[in-house]
Structure formats: structure tokens, C-alpha cells
Design goal:
Elements (H helix, E strand, L loop, with lengths): L3 H8 L4 E6 L5 H14 L5 E6 L17 E2 L5 H10 L2 E5 L8 H9 L3 E6 L10 E4 L6 H11 L8 H14 L10 H12 L4 H9 L4 H13 L1 E4 L4 E6 L1 H6 L10 H6 L6 E7 L4 E7 L5 H9 L2 E2 L3 E6 L3 H13 L2 H6 L2
Parallel strand pairs: 1-2, 1-4, 2-3, 4-5, 5-6, 8-9
Antiparallel strand pairs: 7-8, 9-10, 10-12, 11-12
The structure holds guanosine-5'-monophosphate and manganese (II) ion.
Length: 338
């Protein structure tokens, strides 16, 4: 962070602080937010975590979860007041304000100093303080870095350690993705030393399936998986009726795209879901093919090189056709490159 001394001086006195993160928060979004929340409240700051949407119940165990406010229209006025009165607003795990919907408008209007902490590509220039690195495996890793910059690693307790561990574990795909550096393991070793219980966190996050969700995964894999063997692409296509049939909750489709990517030889995988008001997509790749660019160029999206998402206002069929048409253009790269 460039102006670290000014930032430190700001935090030296108790402040009114808002922490926000991207819509449909995942374990890194919520884990980095609540890791930071649990750190800041130790110093008597008045801290409110506000998420742009709700999030899945496998994240509810995190310390501080009960104090999180998820934006909805009924809460608009009181959230607007909190955001407006804040001295500092931390924006975690997203890089542009349009990723947080109506909340982004409120954050943009607030006179609070903004702090961007993120590891996505192409950050928007809206914050006074920035801790940004695409080398970071997770925003939770950057929260650890921030506490280190504040010379305060000793203050990390079990609650903070477990929130940060959850973010790093999930964003590295359980320490499998290329982002899993020696530094990641060093930080995780420190989090364990500060009390993080790794098997507890792993079970809370990964072994929290409903029977319904497992049946849905079975259905999606047997009935809705398409494999384009000639170009090493696999995708899952879910209609609005499919989603309704299994009464899917927030988070139920999380990770599904990874099954498509796990097929031998597949270089790019997608899930394309009709959510009624729009068609939402998740993209994953292995190797050099950039799904971030693919999402940006075709589906008004973004993310990381190997994990990105986007959306479309077209019908499911039109979106699928566009996807198939655009992905064919990358045939050579998908067949020949690693
Ligand atoms: P997921 O597929 O797990 O929802 O998201 C993968 C990555 O892409 C995450 O880092 C997420 O923030 C990003 N992402 C997902 N959807 C969108 C989108 O519509 N726009 C942008 N800019 N990023 C997205
Ligand atoms: Mn992240």
C-alpha cells in the first residue's frame, strides 16, 4: 500500500467503518470481510459488514456472521445512512463498484475514504488506499498481508485465522490451483499456529450438502452435461425449470463447473444457468486460455485468468448459441496449447 502511514494514522483512532464485498459472496468474500471485521473490532472501531446479496448457509459459521447485513430494498434507507456516515469503506474481493449493484452507487456517493483490497484483474480507480495483487491467491491472503503491514500479526486469533483460512482454502481449490505459492503455505501455517482448525473449516464448508443438492448434482451431470471433445470444452446447461425442480438455494450450484473441468483433457468448462431475469455463467480453464478475456469480450464479465463469470440478457438458447459460436473461435488454442 502506497500511503501506508496515512492509513495507519486513520486507524489509530476508533472509526466508523463499512466493509463490503461482491454479490453472491463466496468463502473468500465473506472470510476476508469477517477476518477483517474481527480484527478491527479489537480496536474499538464501529464496524458494519454489508453484502450486496445474501449468501449460502455453509458460510454462516464464521464469527461475526450474525452482525452482517445483506442488502435488500427494504433496508435501502438505513444502509444508505450507514454508508454515508462511514469514515472508511473497505471494498474486498471485487474490483469495480458495478459488481456490488445498488450498494456500489451508495459507496460511490459516500465521502468516506475507500480502501480496495482485491486480487481480480483490471481494478477500477475509485479508492484512496489500495492493496491489490493478482498474484495473491485470495483476498484473505491480502488481509493477512495488511495485518502484517500494520505490524500486528500477534493479534490474529482463532476466529480471524479461521475466516482467512476459509478464503484461502476455497480460492486455491483446496491448495490445488497454480496460485498456491510457497507464500500461501507459509501464511496458512501461521493461521494454523494462531488456532485455525483445518479439518473443522473444511468440513463446515465442503461437507454441508443437502440430499437435494447431491441429487441435483447427479441430475446435472447425467442429463445436462455437454462435452465438445474435438475442442476440449465441456459445459453444463441449466434451464429455469431445472433450477425450480430442485428448488435451488444460493450456493447450490457452486463448484459444479469444476466437475466439467475435471474431465480428462478438458481445457475449458462452463456452466450456463437461466436465472429468470438473466442467464448467469461461470467459466473455468486450465493453462493459458484466459476465461477472464473470454468473459469480458463476450458476456460483460470478468474475474481471473482461469476462473471468471459473466451474464447475458438473451434467452438461454441464444446464450448457448453465442457461447458455442465464440468458443469455436478459440479452437486452435484449446486444442494445441497447454
Ligand atoms: P464464479 O464463477 O465462482 O461465480 O466466479 C469466478 C470469478 O469470476 C470470481 O472471481 C468472480 O468474482 C468473477 N465473476 C463472476 N461473475 C462475474 C461477472 O459477471 N462479472 C465480473 N466482472 N466478474 C465475475
Ligand atoms: Mn477471491
Amino acid at each position: 500500500m502506497q500511503n501506508l502511514d496515512t492509513f495507519k494514522a486513520l486507524l489509530a483512532e476508533p472509526k466508523k467503518i463499512v466493509i463490503t464485498t461482491h454479490q453472491n459472496p463466496d468463502a473468500d468474500a465473506l472470510g476476508s470481510s469477517l477476518g477483517l471485521y474481527n480484527y478491527l473490532i479489537k480496536y474499538n472501531h464501529e464496524v458494519q459488514v454489508i453484502t450486496p446479496t445474501d449468501y449460502p448457509d455453509f458460510l454462516f459459521w464464521m464469527k461475526g456472521n450474525d452482525d452482517v447485513i445483506a442488502y435488500n430494498e427494504q433496508l435501502h434507507d438505513s444502509i444508505a445512512e450507514t454508508v454515508d456516515k462511514a469514515d472508511l469503506i473497505f471494498c474486498l474481493d471485487f474490483s469495480s463498484l458495478n459488481r456490488i449493484n445498488e450498494l456500489g452507487v451508495l459507496v460511490g456517493q459516500s465521502n468516506a475514504k475507500k480502501v480496495l483490497i482485491d486480487h481480480h484483474l483490471d481494478p477500477e480507480d475509485f479508492a484512496e488506499f489500495v492493496l491489490w495483487s493478482t498474484q495473491a491467491a485470495a483476498t484473505a491472503e491480502l488481509i493477512y498481508d495488511l495485518i502484517e503491514l500494520l505490524d500486528d500479526l500477534d493479534s490474529i486469533d482463532q476466529d480471524i485465522a479461521e475466516c482467512l483460512y476459509a478464503g484461502i482454502m476455497t480460492d486455491t481449490g483446496s491448495f490445488k490451483h497454480p496460485s498456491t505459492t510457497a507464500k500461501v503455505h507459509t501464511i496458512v501455517a501461521q493461521l494454523i499456529a494462531h488456532g485455525a482448525q483445518v479439518s473443522k473449516v473444511s468440513k463446515l464448508i465442503y461437507d454441508n450438502n443437502s440430499v437435494n443438492r447431491l441429487k441435483f448434482i447427479g441430475f446435472a451431470l447425467s442429463e445436462r452435461l455437454y462435452v465438445l471433445e474435438n475442442i476440449n470444452v465441456a459445459y453444463i446447461l441449466l434451464s429455469n425449470e431445472d433450477m425450480a425442480r430442485f428448488n435451488l438455494k444460493s450456493g447450490d450450484t457452486e463448484g459444479l463447473v469444476n466437475y466439467a473441468l475435471s474431465i480428462k483433457g478438458i481445457k475449458m468448462a462452463a456452466i450456463i444457468m437461466d436465472k429468470g431475469d438473466l442467464v448467469k455463467m461461470s467459466f473455468r480453464s486450465v493453462g493459458e486460455f484466459s476465461v477472464n478475456e473470454f468473459a469480458q469480450n463476450n458476456f460483460n464479465g470478468g474475474g481471473h485468468k482461469n476462473a471468471a463469470g459473466g451474464a447475458s440478457k438473451m434467452t438461454l438458447k441464444e446464450t448457448e448459441d453465442k457461447f458455442l459460436n465464440e468458443i469455436q473461435k478459440h479452437k486452435n488454442q484449446l486444442i494445441h496449447e497447454n
